Amino acid sequence: MTQAIARAEPVLRDRAVALTDGIPPLCNVVAANDSALQAGIRWGMSKSQAAQFGAVEIRHRSREQEKAAHAALLDLGWSVSPWIEDTAPDTIVLDLTGLASLFGSEEEIAMELLRRASGLGLAVHVAIASKVDVALHAARGFPGITLIPPGEESKRLSRLPLSALAPAAEILETLERWGVRTCGALAALPVLQLSERLGQEGVRLHKLARGAISRSLVLAGPEMCFEEEMALDYALADLEPLAFLLGRLLDQLCARLAARSLAASAIRLRFDLRDSFEKDFQDLSAPPLPNPPSPIYEKVLGLPVPMQDSKMLLKLLRLQLQSDPPQASIVKIFLAADPARPRATQGGLFFPSSPDPEKLELTVARLANLVGNSNIGSPELVDTHRPGEFRMGRFAPAGDEPHIHRKAAAASAASLGKEARNSPPRRPAAAFRIFRPEFPATVKLCRDFPARIYFHGLSGNVVAASGPWKTSGDWWREDPWQQDEWEVDIRFDSSSGRGERAAANSRAQDGLYRIYYDSVRAGWFVRGRYD
Amino acid sequence: MAVSLATLRSNVELALAGRVAAPFTYRDRNILEIVSTGIPAVDSLAAGLPRGALTEIFGPACSGRTSLLFAALASRTAHAEACALIDGCDTFDPHSAEAAGVELKQLLWVRCQNIDQTLRATDLLLQSGGFGFIALDLSDIPLKVLRHVPLDAWFRFRRAVEDTPTVLVVLGEESNAKTCASLVLRLEAGAAHWSTTLENQAADSPRYPFSWLFDGFDVRAEVLRSRVQPVAGGAGFQKKLVSAGACGRSEIFETNAMWGYHTGASVEPKPK
Questions:
Q1: Which of A44, A515, B92, B150 has its CA 20 to 30 A from that of B79?
Q2: CB A461: neighbour CB atoms within 10 A?
């Protein structure tokens, strides 16, 4: 339990920590680390009693953090071996068969486990033995790394305190009254007499003390659940301290993903919010609801490519929170990662450069923060005839996709090829610029055709026109359209703004525009101009 | 005197250490890679668009700036390059761009609402790197607003794009970047072309508009400033940065109205 707290607050690793549990004010100490026990903390103490030990840090037990620490411990196991047993919340057993070729000797494996555990924010004891229970009890009883060669189980376990075997409280009390306090002393007792006095449990403990029990692992199925949670003592309203906590959770999440050789394809963020004081005050007169739902703020950070960089993820989350901050202070943080295989690509020497996906995502997020989410992306055409319809999609340049390169290579070949050189050059398309929103216009008709137009402070005569091109659609919807479009060449009056600026060239005072009569709105509009 | 000069020189080098590698070493101008604009006439006039430099294309409204931009975008996106368009006045038409051959999936479109957003977005995109082509469209922003853009913004853009494979193109109604631009093209509109289905070609448009189609318009391009010129005898895309050589030349190219995409007559049936 204290490991879970130390993992969430790394500054507590070297301090005396006691955990309390219960409903305030009836909180008792349920766990303490060695430093706290040496300072005088005892299990069952009340919180006020424990608080009298000034050097001891007191924290409330967090089951979410314990769950996350246990998940991290499992990830540590799966990062080394595919066969692990989930023995207890604080204990796992690994099958190291065949790992020598990967990691080296047993001592090297144990060192690697310690190193990886440290990366996950855990301080672990490692014991390696040929029998499951021997390794289990040695890890619980001896600090650091313990290597027990086959045949030496009884000898090495002899110094182990009996409490490491986790006997029932009555049996432990009985054995202590007999003066039996170590496994060696228990193993020295005759089995028959022990069986007569303590029953089968006594025989089992005797076998455990001698290291004589051999059993198989109960394998745990690998889980792909990467979640971190943190309940806050005080509600947070500012982004800066929140970013600090998010950074810590993301560090833990990314370390767990890295331990499993995975990356995050999406980050799910959830905040439990506290009702505002004003709302509470307003609701005083109203009858209270039986189970009022606590407000929740949720965000999903979708990533274009799987990422493992916690700093990059934190920047992206911060940008999202800046653009859409929670409306109340936060009392609980929940983070989850959708696991995916990390991206592994090799750039081609002759391929065009494309933005680094991680960096691009950050740039796009910054731009979205600047111009708004709906104003950035890659335009996608919609399957409709409604003029000007499009939608914004996620910008994901296909720089790494082979078919694009084949296409690009084909384009290059075509442009350099003999045929391309001999064929007449293709005329560039006349581009069109859209006015958003379109300008309302006043159009004078002559024999049903546009003859003169006024819009946006400009006026001019129509010298050439093409139309009307009638379009309509979506009559079954609330917003149908029915338009008569015209392509017009407008010669602006010299007194209007455009005419004054115009230079003396052939078409300087002209403009090619697209106008339309909207039958639904009963008016003329200028859609845009050719440029 | 010689000793004091050497001392002074070493002092300056010491003071600039870490910021400037060799302050007294002559740095030759870069050899810029040139890419096609997508319009052969403009390529023959200006040699193409330089990478790692700022190119300015300006002209009045309806002068073909956007047509040239779309042609360049089509050319770059066809080569699988990531492109970005910073749209200063939100006037980009995706339908027209696709009709011009632009691969929209390769295009990042940033729709800005004011000049401040436009300049900041440009800064962000230039700093992020990796883009083959970045276009800054200031065409419909009022001139009095553009004239208030500090000159250091253009210097910053030029410095940011230097030594990168990015083509930075600025579109506007008049030249804004001044000497920061390595290539300045001025465009002017030429004659508009209309075609008719009538046998009598003399039939005028106002009387028979339903029989006429807008066909395109001519654009006259002129190089006002260029530090880009092909290396003598160079057959590939390698060009050399030299002092203005192609200035004053002009070329006319013709645009095509691409009737296929905006006059779709097929619509949903009307209710009876």
A1: B92
A2: 16
Answer whether A491 touches B (CB < 8 Å).
Answer: no
Mean pLDDT of B221-246: 52
Residues A467-486, mean pLDDT to the nearest whole number: 89
A425/B contact by beta carbon, under 8 A: yes
> What is the rounded average pLDDT of the residues A419-435?
71
DSSP state of B47: -
Q: Which residues of A touch B124 (CB under 8 A)?
A: 363, 366-367, 370
Please give the pLDDT value at position A439.
93
CATH number for the segment(s) A65-210: 3.30.70
Choice between A227 and B264, residue whose per-residue pLDDT is larger: A227
Residues 6 or more apart whose Cβ sits within 8 Å of residue A307: A263, A264, A313, A358, A361
Nearest residue in chain B measured CA to CA from A513: B62
Element (H, E) at A103: helix A100-103
Inside any domain, residue B261: no
Q: Which residues of B touch A506 (CB under 8 A)?
A: 189-191
In terms of average pLDDT, the best of A24-38, A41-55, A215-229, A308-322 is A308-322
pLDDT greater than 50 at residue A331: yes
List Cβ neighbours of B250 (8 Å cut-off, separation of 6 or more). Answer: B45, B220, B221, B222, B223
Decide if A439 touches B, using CB distance below 8 A.
no
Q: How many domains does chain B have?
A: 1
Mean pLDDT of A505-512: 64
Alpha-helical (H) ranges within A324-394 are 357-371
Q: For residue A288, what pLDDT is reported?
A: 55
Examine residue B231 and state whether it is found in any structural domain, yes or no. yes
Calculate the alpha carbon distances from A368 to A266, A321, A324, B105, B137 in Å: 18, 12, 11, 18, 18
Q: Is the pLDDT of residue A244 over 80?
A: yes
Task: Answer yes or no: is pLDDT of B267 > 80.
Answer: no
- DSSP letter for A222, please: P
User: What is the CATH topology of the domain spanning A2-61?
Assistant: MutS, DNA mismatch repair protein, domain I (3.40.1170)
Are A464 and B205 in contact (CB < 8 Å)?
A: yes
For residue B207, list chain A residues with Cβ-Cβ distance below 8 A.
447
A368–B contact, CB cutoff 8 A: no
Residue B8 lies in a domain: no
Residue B260 covered by a domain = no
Q: How far apart are CA A33 and CA A15, in angstroms?
A: 9
Instruction: Give the tens place of pLDDT for each residue, A446-464.
Output: 888 889 999 988 899 998 8
- Residue A88, chain B, CB below 8 Å: the answer is no
Report how far Cα B229 is from the mean position of its chain's Cα atoms. 17
* Whether the Cβ atoms of residue A490 and residue B218 lie closer than 8 Å to each other: no
Q: How far is it, in rounded angstroms, from Cα B105 to Cα B112?
A: 19
Say whether pLDDT at A391 is over 90.
yes
Closest CA to B47 of B39, B74, B59: B39
CB spacing of A427 vs B107 below 8 angstroms: no
User: Which one-letter DSSP state was computed for residue A34?
Assistant: H
> Hey, what are B226's tokens?
């260029």
Q: How far off is chain B from A490, nearest CA to CA, in Å?
A: 11
CATH no. for residue B232?
3.40.50.300
Contacts of A72 (CB under 8 A, 6+ apart): A7, A120, A121, A122, A252, A255, A256, A259
How confident is residue B258, by pLDDT bands cut at 50, 70 and 90? low
Looking at per-residue confidence, does A291 or A251 come out higher? Answer: A251
> What was the ipTM of the complex prediction?
0.80
**What residue ranges do the domains of chain A occupy?**
2-61, 65-210, 432-530
Residues of A in contact with B264 (CB under 8 A): 385, 471
Four-residue CA torsion sign, B38, B39, B43, B46: negative
Shortest Cα distance, chain B CAs vs residue A394, angstroms? 9
